[in-house]
Amino acid sequence: MNETLTLLHAHRSIRKFTDQALADGQLERIIGAGQCAATSSFLQGATIIRVSKPESRQKLATYAGNQPYVANAAEFLVFCADLRRAGNCCEQYEKPFSGDYTEHFIIATVDAALLAQNIVVAAESEGLGICYIGGLRNNPREVSDLLQLPQGVYPVFGLCLGYPDQNPEVKPRLPLEVILKQETYNDEGDAALIESYDEKIREYYRTRTGGGHGICWSEQVASLLSEKARPHMRGFLAEQGFHFK
Q1: DSSP 80-142
Q2: Residues of the chain with pLDDT under 70
Q3: How many secondary structure helices (H) and strands (E) does the chain include?
Q4: What are phi and psi for residue 199, nearest 5 degrees?
Q5: Each residue of 179-202: pLDDT tens digit?
Q6: What domains are there in the chain, each with its CATH number?
Q7: Whole-number Å distance between alpha carbons of 244 and 51
Q8: How far apart are CA 181 and CA 221, in angstroms?
Q9: Which GO molecular function terms does the record list (predicted)?
Q10: pTM for this structure?
Q11: 80 φ, ψ (degrees, to nearest 5)
């Protein structure tokens, strides 16, 4: 284990932050590291909105499902998949814009995720804590209106950044054998591994700081996938110009 691997294995979501602000230039340095992430076809199809106004932060906290750390973290960033910039390039060179194809949507969304994950690693390397906020997609229209997002841009998720005011345990991940396959997809033997993992997760929830519900991973996933998941997203994305041709 080298320093980088140790850092990656120590990742936790932080939901309580101190009042300490980031140092001058620290956020820009971290975001610069994020820009070094891979980007398909060099599209660089992501834009970050830094939200600092308290009233805007409070609105976003509400839109995200009343998550107070959205308002309280030292920094809050909204990561957007952005095809508007590419569309402007098409207009500049008098080329037709075909950015409403599904593939372009995937590229821009993946670009946003890769950019964010590089930023997370850079931030954690400097002692900061993070929490991804997918809850912004609970109310994507309200978020987009607040941030004045134009056609061709949508909010993928938010990110809290700040100095941790808690020290939660690292949440165990699935056994490597479950997610790493050789040559072809084969889930034979996964059931026994997941059963053992479920017991580990039950114990994690039972004993973690503050206590927990004590249910296992597979039960969580079954509950998640048995319910409707933000059915408004397809209509919202169409309104933003993503038509999935």
Answers
A1: EEE-HHHHHHHHHTT----TTSHHHHHHHHHHHHHHHHHHHHHHHHTT-EEEEEGGGGGSHHH
A2: 209-212
A3: 11, 4
A4: -65, -35
A5: 999 999 999 999 999 999 999 999
A6: 3-168 (3.40.109.10), 171-208+210-227 (no CATH)
A7: 30
A8: 21
A9: oxidoreductase activity
A10: 0.95
A11: -120, 135
